[in-house]
Design goal:
4 domains, alpha+beta, 618 residues, Annexin V, domain 1, PH-domain like, seven-stranded antiparallel sheet, 10 strands, Substrate Binding Domain Of Dnak, Chain:A, Domain 2
């Protein structure tokens, strides 16, 4: 009798659940997957249509709305059935077990004493079952009411925005966006983007583990965002920094605005966290260099190396002791208050970086130590005595400091009118007597000639007096100062010009850019630097040679290795970014890091390697 009761109470009930309820759920799942594929296709078509094809855009929008309606209807039905099955199935199974226990109590008098111990639990479960049954009715009615309400809200402008507000804790925003490929403006890939931990990362699908996410913007403190309304595709916006940029596309205008607001909010939040003095020492202990940035060399820290330069132990502008921030394009140290004012000037005037929170590339550290507060003030405050303006101090108000810094770097009121000789330097980085007697020439030519000999102080002075960093010398094949610096192999001069806005991909009258010139001259350090700064190694000069073919022809093994590795790395990123192994990227970064340090700390070793390789080739 017990076995018969168990068979009818448990086995039959579970078979009904499997053969009826689960089968019905499987059929609804198939419907949901089919409508999901239709919605994905409609989203792609809606995103790809040109803003100039109005009729087609309207048709795609109507199709998207209709598909979305059907998707929501089927999805809500599917969710309703899943919830009903979860609740009802739990009720049936537990009720079946309760019947089984009652059968045990009835048929096994010998086990009555043991079963009696379960009476309180059974009574409690019976009460809970009654409550579950009551709650089931209430929940079903509530879900049906929500389903009716949701079906009535059909505004295409809000497609997808409801999902943006449901990001998990620690994530500012997440969702699907189209990303334009770096080398092809016509190639767009749809990926899952997330803002978290002060970074913008993306992955192929939201189901993929976050450990496989690829960083797109590694530090939002150095980024800005703006809408793009002049492209063929709609709802586009750009996220850019001083080093790189990327163009993204949302599905609707409201989603684009939500992403822009979220990115701007994350940037401001990152600034507030990084500017907290209490976090300064703690962050410097735990922060690790991000992918693609150089680690500081072993030995003294960046802070120690920078502050040991005379004058750098105090803020360049107000004189406050123990500065922790720096302007990398001006080559000066700053206190936290002055660094905030410099950041407000814009990156075209001053690029602020932390001496403790951020990682510093070897060439940037070498450049910074070649300038410093003393050299900067010798240029930007040379004429202060003439104006009669007193320099601010650490005790001055923030408003006074803002006025001083703006007058010094933006208005340039304290510059001293320096002669701009026809021949700026004599080849050693100093002015000749004949040059001092010459009439003034443009500061552009002065910057060009100083770059050709790697004279950093003269280059800094020329830029301060209004020289154009991308000026072209019509008497020298329309070359720029960056090309002149690359030709002589001055790593610090190239870094200084790039930090101040030099066009890394400009090409002269012969179609040769800075990377062509540096490759032909065999300067491995500048080639490595230019590659890191985004130089196009696929560009060919008037003879049809690109940098790689030039390096092969000149038998420079180091440069050939760098160019081929960079090309392979770029092709792997562009082709299969989500199957691109982290170990491959770390190897690429390690090799570039070694060349950067060698070019900064031991350039003679690179020259010797080049000589040995050339001799071996011969």
């Amino acid at each position: 009798m017990l076995l018969d009761q168990t068979d009818r109470a448990i086995k039959t009930q579970l078979q009904n659940i499997i053969t009826q309820d689960i089968w019905r759920l499987r059929e609804m799942k198939k419907d949901f997957e089919r409508i999901s594929e239709d919605l994905e296709s409609a989203v792609f078509k809606n995103g790809q249509v040109s803003r100039h094809r109005i009729q087609e855009a309207e048709e795609c929008s109507h199709i998207l709305v209709a598909t979305l309606k059907c998707f929501r209807h089927i999805a809500l039905d599917y969710i309703l059935q899943l919830n009903s099955f979860a609740i009802d199935g739990k009720f049936k199974i537990i009720n079946t077990m309760l019947s089984y226990l009652n059968a045990e109590n009835t048929f096994f008098h010998q086990g009555y004493d043991l079963i009696t111990d379960l009476d309180p639990l059974m009574k409690n479960m019976s009460v809970q079952m009654d409550q579950i049954a009551t709650n089931l009715i209430v929940q079903q009615k509530d879900m049906e009411r929500k389903q009716m309400t949701t079906q009535q809200q059909e505004n295409v402008a809000n497609i997808g925005t409801e999902f943006l507000s449901k990001a998990p804790p620690g994530i500012a925003i997440e969702g699907y966006l189209f990303k334009r490929a770096a080398r092809s403006s016509k190639t767009w890939n749809r990926s899952w983007f997330t803002i978290q931990n002060n970074q913008l990362v993306y992955q192929k699908h939201w189901k993929v583990s976050q450990e496989e996410a690829v960083p797109l913007m590694e530090d939002l403190r150095l980024c800005s965002v703006r809408p793009l309304d002049d492209l063929e595709r709609r709802f586009c916006f750009e996220v850019f920094s001083v080093r790189t940029s990327c163009v993204l596309q949302a599905d609707t205008e409201s989603m684009r605005e939500a992403w822009i607001r979220a990115i701007e909010s994350s940037i401001h939040s990152a600034y507030r966290v990084s500017q907290d003095p209490d976090n300064d020492s703690q962050c410097s202990k735990v922060s690790a260099p991000s992918v693609g940035r150089e680690c500081p060399p072993e030995g003294p820290s960046v802070l120690q190396q920078v502050l040991r330069l005379p004058g750098n132990e105090r803020c360049c502008d107000c004189g406050r002791a123990d500065p922790r921030w720096a302007s990398i394009n001006l080559g000066i140290t700053l206190c936290i208050e002055c660094s905030g004012i410099h950041r407000g000037l814009g990156v075209h005037h001053s690029k602020v970086r932390s001496l403790t929170l951020d990682s510093w590339e070897p060439e940037l550290l070498k450049l910074f130590c070649a300038l410093g507060n003393v050299a900067n003030n010798h240029i930007y405050e040379a004429g202060r005595d003439v104006t009669g303006v007193n320099k601010v101090t650490a005790e001055s108000s923030r408003q006074q400091k803002e006025q001083w810094i703006k007058a010094k770097y933006v208005e340039k009121r304290f510059l001293k009118e320096l002669p701009s000789p026809a021949s700026c330097t004599d080849g050693t980085g100093t002015f000749t007597d004949q040059s001092e007697r010459s009439l003034t020439v443009s500061q552009d030519l002065c910057l060009f000639r100083a770059a050709s000999v790697g004279d950093l102080p003269v280059m800094c002075a020329a830029l301060a007096h209004g020289a154009n960093v991308n000026w072209t010398n019509s008497e020298d094949m329309r070359r720029t100062p960056l090309i002149a610096a690359a030709e002589v192999g001055s790593l610090t001069a190239c870094e200084f010009l790039l930090q101040n806005g030099a066009n890394v991909n400009y090409r002269d009258a012969r179609g040769q850019g800075a990377i062509h010139i540096a490759t032909r001259a065999g300067h491995t350090g500048p080639v490595c630097l230019l590659l890191k700064r985004g130089a196009n190694q696929y560009a060919a000069d008037e003879t049809g040679q690109d940098p790689l073919s030039i390096a092969v022809a000149t038998a420079n093994a180091d440069i050939v290795t760098l160019l081929r590795l960079a090309r392979m790395n770029e092709e792997m990123r562009e082709g299969e970014p989500f199957f691109w192994h982290t170990g491959d990227d770390e190897t690429f970064q390690d090799i570039f890091r070694d060349f950067s340090r060698m070019a900064s700390d031991d350039p003679e070793k690179l020259a010797r390697r080049r000589f040995e390789c050339s001799g071996a080739e011969k």
